[in-house]
Write a structure and sequence with these properties.
By secondary structure, this protein is an all-alpha fold. The protein has one domain. The protein contains seven helices and no strands. It starts with a helix and ends with a helix.
């Protein structure tokens, strides 16, 4: 499941580049773009499939107080999807700033390293779970909304 989350984070991290370009210069081919979009969609579907049979006790179970429950992890992912969706929305109306697209391959390698790093990080407070979802129905509803953006 951690690998699927890493793939989801990697794909979501590239969404601003997929949709935020203002000029006709493409960083990726249409095939590359479609590959990333398909990966995002399939990862979302696989993630939903992984949790569909969990009961509410399993969703909120925490191995200890320093760990997140499955519900909290999914809430965190949904929050980040929402943040990135707004980022994309705002960036599509912002003129491109010179210097941000130069040397994009170096930036891609940084994003890949970040997305595949297995070292436990600390979530920014804006994306920390608040315990909004105690039922799978509410959780899936929210993730389906953000997953369709």
């Amino acid at each position: 499941m951690k690998e699927k989350i890493n793939i989801l984070l990697l794909t979501v991290a590239f969404i601003p580049v997929l949709f935020g370009q203002q000029n006709n210069t493409r960083l990726w081919t249409e095939t590359d773009r479609q590959f990333l979009l398909d990966g995002l969609k399939s990862t979302h579907l696989e993630l939903m499939k992984e949790v569909e049979d969990l009961n509410e006790v399993q969703l909120v179970f925490k191995p200890d107080t320093s760990k997140w429950s499955i519900s909290e992890i999914l809430e965190h992912l949904g929050t980040f999807e929402e943040i990135l969706s707004w980022d994309i929305y705002c960036n599509q109306y912002t003129p491109e700033q010179s210097g941000f697209t130069k040397n994009h391959s170096a930036k891609d390698s940084l994003m890949l390293a970040y997305a595949t790093d297995t070292t436990k990080g600390k979530s920014p407070s804006v994306a920390a779970p608040l315990g909004r979802f105690t039922s799978l129905v509410k959780l899936k509803s929210t993730l389906n909304i953000t997953g369709q953006r």
